[in-house]
Specification:
By secondary structure, the chain is of the alpha/beta class. Helices cover 37% and strands 19% of the residues. It has 11 helices and 9 strands. The model has no long low-confidence stretch (mean pLDDT 90).
């Protein structure tokens, strides 16, 4: 990489961004300019707009060195979120590590669906507004719901102790640790005997054969166990639709994120359970069916 030595003093914000954009394009990265801006903003501890207003400002040697290390990681297809160690989601900042899936904008559809329906839900006597989140990862889903529903409490499960540790850190950072209980275990097993107004999940749903076709950032860097949903991608939905309805309060609901072309199959699993009644399918920002909601009969 030619960002070195006698030329270092010549690297202004504008010049470094232009060079990095070209370098990332040459290496086949999908969003070269955006990646360059996000990484440099992080190094400078400034908003991205600062880069445009101060394009002729030279970088200090320590800033250039830190940025150079980030660029090296990015061209090795390390996702930007892993390089920064954080990701914005639902207006909140979440710590991410290579033990957790990176929160996606599409998952905001699941959170908003849960918040809207829990706001309208009426708790039975002597029960509060309690929900569960299965496969919590960073905690992005459950902690966002808690943030936007101050009266709610949650139980959350992840099979990975390392992912659970990240979620607990995020709960602490967001001031939500007193309203959530963390469990390490297999899907609903740690919650046996409890009931909830809602059970939420963004489970692994990529068909095993499709994983090789994913972008290298996803395929080689994000945890395989958070991606693979078995041969047809539906393994976890089958278990959840079989086991979760009995753990809902009357008129409670399940809300699951699903992959492309999976919504109808997941809705059919819900309809096959006699405890469930109405189902809803919600599109994401691109119009793709992304969330399935299934309601327990009253």
């Amino acid at each position: 990489m030619p960002m070195r030595n006698q030329n270092d003093r010549l690297w202004t914000i504008g010049r470094i961004l232009k060079w990095t954009e070209g370098y990332f394009t040459e290496k086949g990265l999908e969003s070269p300019r955006l990646d360059a801006e996000v990484l440099l903003s992080h190094v400078l501890k400034k908003q991205r707009i600062y880069l445009y207003v101060h394009f002729d400002e030279p970088l200090q040697p320590e800033e250039l060195a830190a940025y150079r290390e980030m660029v090296k990681k990015r061209v090795m297809h390390v996702p930007v979120a892993y390089i920064l160690g954080e990701r914005e989601f639902m207006g909140l900042t979440f710590k991410v590590t290579e033990d957790t899936l990176i929160p996606r904008p599409d998952t905001e559809i699941l959170v908003q669906a849960a918040v809207d329906r829990l706001k309208a839900w009426r708790a039975p006597e002597d029960t509060g507004l309690r929900f569960a989140d299965i496969g919590t990862g960073t905690g992005a889903v459950c902690l966002s719901v808690l943030h936007y529903l101050p009266q709610a409490v949650a139980e959350t499960v992840d099979i990975s102790p390392a992912a659970r540790a990240v979620a607990e850190e995020n709960a602490e950072q967001l001031g939500l640790k007193g309203r959530i209980t963390f469990h390490t275990g297999d899907l609903l097993t740690p919650l046996e005997g409890q009931t909830f107004a809602a059970i939420l999940s963004n489970p692994p749903y990529i068909p095993e054969a499709d994983i090789e076709a994913l972008a290298p950032e996803v395929r080689t860097k994000e945890p395989h166990t958070a991606l693979s949903g078995g041969k047809d991608g539906l393994d976890f939905y089958r278990r959840l639709m079989a086991e979760a309805p009995a753990m809902l309060e009357p008129n409670g609901f399940l809300a699951f994120e699903v992959g492309i072309h999976q919504a109808q199959a997941v809705a059919a699993l819900a309809k096959a359970n006699p405890l469930l009644g109405k189902t809803e399918i919600l599109p994401d920002y691109a119009g793709i069916d992304r969330v399935v909601v299934a309601w327990k009969k009253g």
